[in-house]
């Protein structure tokens, strides 16, 4: 019986330069997608996948995240006094979502380094990594789908999307072959960071969800800075692949890169259209635009 995946690490120590100037002061994880900060989508996905403990890796200027998931006494008292019970429930709901711990990454030394910062809190058990920039809309939460594969297979699982054409060069890409029994599983033999289109070993692009065995920590400790002088998570995973099986998993659902301005716009439009309270009105508004 495999150990249960109980903890999820959220690397949120990056600078968010693609979203400047909005992210000069506001952490990109706190930008609103419709009316919820980006990071809350990931936190809710983790909770709905059975995660019990969330570990957010933060950095300089990221304090707003801690405040967001904490009680806000002034706000709650004011809403109560004004009889705004629905809004009060929203505010209180956020602060009681989950058990959350914070670890500060003193310098943004890379995604691999951010994950390594969670070593003490994770300990010796398998764990999930959720990149909050990747918001995934799915009937069954993406992480839940991956935990099911982990429970079945016992090895690390990396979420992938099938990317056609030269766009693959923007991603980490898996080498290997589709599983004969389950076409959503990719038996991984290697991985390349941002390959040239002609050299990409497959169409399987790595998306921001991972389930990793704790062996990754020792390997990340030995990982030298790679591309951009940063400690890369993919370098650590490549070392893990020499010792353990790793599976790519094509999740069911749609992913939006909301760390990117265009991705945020796509997500905003599609999430707004799905809203019960104003989706129809928004659809009519869009139809009326002379495009
Ligand atoms: P990105 O490269 O997308 O994030 O890292 P970034 O550096 O914040 O963004 P841009 O490219 O400048 O706009 C992927 C994930 O890894 C985290 C980021 O917060 C993001 O969730 N990260 C990256 C860290 O936690 N620490 C780091 O040192 C680097």
Descriptive report:
The N and C termini lie far apart (56 Å). The protein has 11 helices and 13 strands. β2 and β3 form a beta hairpin. It has a 9-stranded mixed beta sheet with strand order 5-4-1-6-11-8-12-10-9. A two-stranded antiparallel ribbon has the order 2-3. It is globular and about 60 Å long. The model has no long low-confidence stretch (mean pLDDT 95). The protein is an alpha/beta fold. α3 (73-81) packs antiparallel against α4 (85-95) and α8 packs across α9. The protein has helices spanning 38-48, 63-68, 73-81, 85-95, 111-116, 119-122, 142-153, 215-222, 233-241, 261-273, 279-287, and strands at residues 7-11, 32-33, 36-37, 53-58, 99-104, 127-130, 134-137, 156-162, 172-178, 185-193, 204-212, 246-250, 254-257. It has a single domain (7-259), classed as Spore Coat Polysaccharide Biosynthesis Protein SpsA, Chain A (Alpha-Beta Complex). It binds uridine 5'-triphosphate. The site of uridine 5'-triphosphate (UTP) has 21 residues, from α5.
